[in-house]
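Section 5: illustrative case.
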């Protein structure tokens, strides 16, 4: 199991600082959030990754469709998804990054 270390940001997207320095920490939830929120092509370094969850908020389709999309995108990022629940606009993810699945 691998814990991605990255610069941490606030829920508002601002960089987290402490004593004038950027804060490093476990970025698993940050990476999950970014993938679920981002639309495809939002990130030039990986334009095919993203769910664009806001587009599904008023969607009438079965929640299993959205669940499958979220799971696919997280798995493509190297996350081993142990459980995933999409319920009334909220996404609950339990997973971890496997260093053998991460691209270098």
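Designed sequence:
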């Amino acid at each position: 199991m691998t814990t991605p270390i990255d610069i941490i940001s606030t829920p508002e997207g601002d960089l987290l600082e402490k004593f004038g320095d950027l804060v490093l920490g476990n970025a698993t939830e940050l990476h999950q959030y970014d993938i679920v929120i981002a639309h495809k092509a939002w990130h030039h370094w990986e334009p095919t990754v993203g769910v664009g969850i806001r587009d599904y908020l008023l969607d009438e389709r079965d929640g299993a469709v959205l669940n499958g999309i979220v799971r696919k995108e997280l798995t493509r990022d190297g996350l081993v998804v142990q459980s995933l629940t999409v319920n009334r606009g909220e996404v609950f993810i339990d997973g971890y990054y496997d260093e053998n699945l991460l691209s270098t």
